[in-house]
Prior knowledge:
The complex is a heterodimer. Chain A is mainly beta.
Amino acid sequence: MILSGTRFGExxxxxxxxxxxxxxxxxxxxxxxxxxxxxxxxxxxxxxQNIEEPSLAWPIVNPCIYVPDYQIDSSIDKDKYTExxxxxxxxxxxxxxxxxxxxxxxxxDLKKLLGKQVILETTNYQVKYPLFDDxxxxxxxNNAA
Amino acid sequence: xxxxxxxxxxxxxxxxxxxxxxxxxxxDQARIGIKAPRSVTVHRKEVxxxxxxxxxxxxxxxxxxxxx
Lengths: 145, 68
């Protein structure tokens, strides 16, 4: 099958690539079917691409890459997911200001092809955790030198 | 909207198996207990709205802005 009208051009997929989100994403309850495709062969980022409305796609990444001790709380059954992702947000043209949503991660079961966005109520995680503060600092010190 | 008056430790049953209890009042704040099955999610509205806003904002990220 082919998905057109995406910001990635045409995306080819099979029935077995479709993840079902029963409740959609928060604010997007009508979005229930998604593809998960890599940003590039070497990138840590992936795209969660909606099938109902192909112009909707969210960049996601494993939060542990940026927050090594990241944990989702114990109220979420471990057998409900195999992967955890955070939604990434980047203001247009300002990649160093990118953030990740740590309070509402996406949990995905790769075998059952199921996904869900959960809210971690008992944590102090932020909706906009800066991804590249270290890079920004090193840029500043390079400029100073 | 249905409006009910409750005294401390009195509760309200919503649907099947959700109980909301008024635990304590202090000035303009109220402590509320909620008993619900695990399948029912309970969230503070302002947190929920913040996440909806963030999802809306992140739906349009330009692939060229992903640094690697």
